[in-house]
Amino acid sequence: MIDRKACLKAIARHVSDADIVLPVYSTAFDWLDIRPNPLNYMSHGAMGLASSHALGLALGRPDKRVIVLDGDGSLLMNLGTLVSTAEAAPKNMIHFVMENGTYEANGGHPIPGRGAVSFAGLARSAGYKNVYEFSDLKIFEQQVGAILNETGPVFVCLKIVSSGEQERDYSRLHGPQVRKAFKDALGAA
What we know:
By secondary structure, this protein is an alpha/beta fold. The protein contains 8 helices and 8 strands, in the order βαβααβααβββαβαβα.
């Protein structure tokens, strides 16, 4: 199992200021600390929809790399997005899923199928051609740069452990200033 913050730091080393990143829930707070950027798209409060939003952004902006940092509980809320993404086959979309077996943002309650569901298997069955699963940080760090440069859609399941307590200041995720910064950055790019 890998520490979520360590995974995010490994990803951040390969993300450019021009990339659109969609972090969700607990991951969003960590990502904002690691890599603040106006092109971070906050879909917090729309559990399960980050991957659908990422698909729309990837199709609408094929000139931009779109990276979704999803949670296992969030993805379970919208498994149909895997089939839609595989069918649309956006070349610029990379879908990371942080799998810790819990609805961490909602009190750490276990997800249905905890330990039995293979998210990588679901992505393969949906039609993703490039699917990865990691539970070792060193191996992930060695491969993440190449994975982020693959033609999408790409699916990566990261077996993580919680990073512990977080300060959850929701004003960092919501509000007109966050939406305006994203809109302005997307329009300028």
